[in-house]
Amino acid sequence: MSVVLSEHLPLLASAPGGIQKLRGLILELAVRGRLVPQDPSDEPASELLKRIALSRAALNEASPRKRGKQVRAAEDNDWPFSIPDGWEWTSLSNLTRVLNGRAYSKEELLDAGTPVLRVGNLFTSNHWYYSDLELEPEKYCNKGDLIYSWSASFGPFIWNGPKVIYHYHIWKLSLFDETSYSKDFLYKFLLEKTAEIKAAGHGVSMVHMTKEKMEKLPVPVPPLAEQHRIVAKIDELMALCDQLEAEQGDATSAHARLVETLLGTLTQSTDAADLAANWQRLAEHFDTLFTTEASIDVLKQTVLQLAVMGKLVPQDPNDEPASALLKRIAHERARLEAKGACKKIKPLPCIEERAQPFQVPNGWEWVRWVEIAQKIVDIDHKMPDTVKDGVPYVSPRDFYPDNRIDFEGAKKVSRDDFLKLSAKIRPEVGDIIYPRYGTIGENRLVVDDLEFLASYSCCVIKTLKNFVDPNYQFYFSISQCCRDQAKAAENKTTQANVGIKSIQEFAFPLPPLREQQQIVAKIDELMALCDRLKADLTSARQQQATLADTLIDAALEAA
Fold it and tell me: Is the domain 322-511 a CATH 3.30.70.100 member?
């Protein structure tokens, strides 16, 4: 490794994706002949190629039917990059036979016999099929064989398992002369080549990679002794990367536990004054505590939890208590019921003290969410026909960060369907869209005065805007208090979901109206602080990544 990299290893490793970049750089320097010094006393690669050619000829003589095509030697300017003296370029087919796997019908895949190695077994799947077919020796893969997956998931492997039959989407690379060309070096080269393809954004092209293209792949050939030195140095440096990665993982985990524990002390504050004192202690260490996006997200969630616990702003005994507010809400609901704007709800049992998620301040009340909303319902479950131009019919897939909804990209329904369906529930400014499936709790507050519908995968919480601040309800809906209740109410089916009845009966901590507004203002202030912290963090990481890339480029240029 160059002096430039050695001096700046901590910076490179700590940059975003730094260790992965280091791994790529190690392989790139290796295959270019820049990782270890050359030894002029090494037997040159030209002699190795002569011996490999003899071995190849002997194999072709013994098995004429399996004779491979000879690939011409290219001119110097055809090769990808310059290589040191004593090295040579050749094509993959001059070093190894590229052997096809075999495709199988369903009837040939059994529950017992010889394992059939498929691409999924190399990457993600632990499920195996078996076969009792008797095949020619080249269709089997043994421990230590070099193979290459060429389908959508692609890359080289040195097989470390038992004897298997390898599938059609896998090639076995059988070297003509392993005493003249290192299988381990070829494996490292193919790792680098695969990473190069992926980095270029052309990974999908491997789906169309033909055997002929693979055989023509240019491969560098160092002297044999240098091949072994390169492999040993790569292994040494990759072990160092593993160590750095483990240390980073341990440090990240410890940091997360520390942040979670210290922020937990805030929720244990007895009142707003106690919270202010605890907050001040943490604020003195912001530069060491909130150094990751995850830690800032935990801070945001803590702010929300403090808010709904009544610990974010001080209480004012002169505020109208929530009990009086509830009487006014009941009167408003009765008026709306008489107009047919909402249905009368059945009397719900009080939330007993043991069922309350936490104790709320004097002047607050625990209520069921539906008791302080106009209604909580969803649309008809039959999806109307979509049209090219019409009224947006949004679902959680149209939800984006920062409370945004992609109305333009959403499905559209006709105006007739909109008018028919909106008679039951039409979202308006101040209402909350609550996904009930999959992304449960990733809610959105309606802030745009647009005509649209929310799909049946969501319910709409129509708020009583003059009595319970919609922003406070939204912040409650994304707080841990609400998320915990949703988790407890999940129906354990194929896809987790929460019933509307459960959402209607969520325990809701109701403050006096004036305090709701103060809480929202304080949350907005602190969320803006968190966003500034995250923006500063992103900017610093971008600068760090740019510096790391510059150092890597310098190392390659120096090589």
Answer: no
Kindly calculate the radius of gyration of the chain based on its CA atoms and give it in whole angstroms.
Answer: 33
Contact criterion met (CB below 8 Å) for 153 and 122: yes
Q: How do residues 484-499 score in pLDDT, each as one tens digit?
A: 999 999 887 667 889 9
The pair phi, psi for residue 174, each rounded to 5°, is: -105, 105
Q: How many Cα atoms are found within 13 Å in the side-chain-facing hemisphere of 496?
A: 10
Q: What would the 3-class secondary structure string for 479-538 be? A: CHHHHHHHHHHCECCCCCECCHHHHHCCEEEECCHHHHHHHHHHHHHHHHHHHHHHHHHH
Q: pTM for the full model?
A: 0.64
Homologous superfamily of domain range 43-222 = DNA methylase specificity domains (3.90.220.20)
pLDDT digits 0-9 by tens, 164-190: 999 989 999 999 999 999 999 999 999
Helix, strand, coil tally for the chain in percent (to 5): 50, 15, 35
What pLDDT is attached to residue 70? Answer: 57
Predicted confidence (pLDDT) per residue in 400-417, tens digit:
888 899 999 999 999 999
Contact 485, 308 (CB under 8 A): no
**DSSP type of residue 166:** E
Helix count and strand count (H, E) for the chain? 17, 21
Indicate where the chain has its CATH 3.90.220.20 domain(s): 43-222, 322-511
537 and 292 Cβ atoms separated by less than 8 Å: yes
Name the residue type at position 380: D
In this structure, is the dihedral angle defined by the CA atoms of residues 380, 385, 391 and 394, taken in order, positive or negative? positive
Q: 221-274, pLDDT tens digit by residue? A: 999 999 999 999 999 988 888 888 888 888 788 878 878 888 887 888 777 777
Q: Report the chain's mean pLDDT, rounded to a whole number.
A: 87
